[in-house]
Amino acid sequence: MPTRDHDVSSLSDSALQRARRDLAASLALARPDSPVRVPVLAQIDAIDTEHAERERTARATLRICSCGLASDDDAFFDGHLFERPGHEERDLSRYACR
Known about the structure:
mainly alpha, 2 domains
């Protein structure tokens, strides 16, 4: 049986929430042995994954080194600083929203 990807990346946040609510209602009305549960659960999983990715991206903070390297990957950036003892992280607090 072919698998189908459920691309929900183009939906707005409110559309994602609305779609998830509608799917949850459909799931609640479906019988436990109903085959309709499989695609509904797949769509809910796609929505949950997209929502988690958006939250992770929103929390990502850009860090900049004194050499000009910039990254939002903390492990990579910390490794860069560790391997180059003369480098320092730039203080960007003056650019933060208040």
